Amino acid sequence: xxxxxxxxxxxxxxxxxxxxxxxxxxxxxxxxxxxxxxxxxxxxxxxxxxxxxxxxxxxxxxxxxxxxxxxxxxxxxxxxxxxxxxxxxxxxxxxxxxxxxxxxxxxxxxxxxxxxxxxxxxxxxxxxxxxxxxxxxxxxxxxxxxxxxxxxxxxxxxxxxxxxxxxxxxxxxxxxxxxxxxxxxxxxxxxxxxxxxxxxxxxxxxxxxxxxxxxxxxxxxxxxxxxxxxxxxxxxxxxxxxxxxxxxxxxxxxxxxxxxxxxxxxxxxxxxxxxxxxxxxxxxxxxxxxxxxxxxxxxxx
Length: 301
Prior knowledge:
Blueprint: H1 3-8, E1 11-16, H2 17-20, H3 24-33, H4 35-44, H5 56-64, E2 75-81, H6 85-98, E3 105-107, H7 117-120, E4 124-127, H8 130-138, E5 142-146, E6 159-163, H9 173-181, H10 183-192, H11 204-215, E7 224-230, H12 237-247, E8 253-256, H13 263-269, E9 273-276, H14 279-285, E10 291-293
Parallel strand pairs: 1-2, 1-4, 2-3, 4-5, 6-7, 6-9, 7-8, 9-10
Antiparallel strand pairs: 5-10
C-alpha cells in the first residue's frame, strides 16, 4: 500500500494540549503573569505528571482501537500545542507515562496551531482555543471547542460519540429557515423536500471515517457507537433518515427530541463526546458529558 493510500485509510485526530491534559493552573498563570512566568513554571515541573483533561478518555479509547485488529483502518492522534518545545516537554512526558501512542506533534510557541491540521491530514481538530477552532472550520475542517465538562457517571468500553444534526453533520440550510422564518416554515420545508438529501455539514467527512472503522467489525461488535441527538421531531425526522441512507452512513442511535434538553439523553447514552453548534445546547450538555461546541452556521454569526 502506498503512503498516500495508507493516509487516506486512516482516521487522524488533531488535539490541543489543553484539551488532552488539565493545564488550567498553568494557563491561568500565563494569562495573569505572561509567557516568561509560564515557561519557568512548566520547565520547573516538567517531571511532574499532568492530570488527564476533558478529551483524554476520548483519545485513550480511539488509540485502543488500533490494538483490536490489524485489518482495521488505523487511528492516529496528533498533538498541536501553542507551547514551545521546551515547555512542551512536560506534555510529552505525561503522554509517555499514560502510554498514549502519540508520536507526532507541532509546538508553535504561541502561534495558531490550526494551519497544521491540513498537512497532518487530520479529519477532526479539538482545541480549547475558540479562535483556532473557528479558523479551522472556516478552512473546511471539522473542529470543536472543548468545553469544561462533566464526565458521564458510567463508562462503556465502547467509544461513544454523539452528534447534533443541523450545522454539524448536515449543513445549516434547514436551521436557517427555522430561525429566520419560524418552526412551521421549517416543518413545511422538510416535508416538501423529504426525498432530497440534506447537504453535508462540517462533520460529514469525520462521520464517514467513523463508519469505515465500524464497518471493519462484525455487526454488533464495533468498538465505536454513534448517536444522532437532534431537536428535530416528526415529520422533520424523515429527511434525516433518508439522507443518512443516501450517504450510506451508519448511525447506531437516533434521538429526535422535539426541543427537549439533550443532557439527560446524552448521559443515558454515555457519550464520550457530544458535538453541537448551539452554544446554549452545548452549555446544557456539558453538565452531563464531555462536550465540543461547533461554532459554525447560522447560530454562530
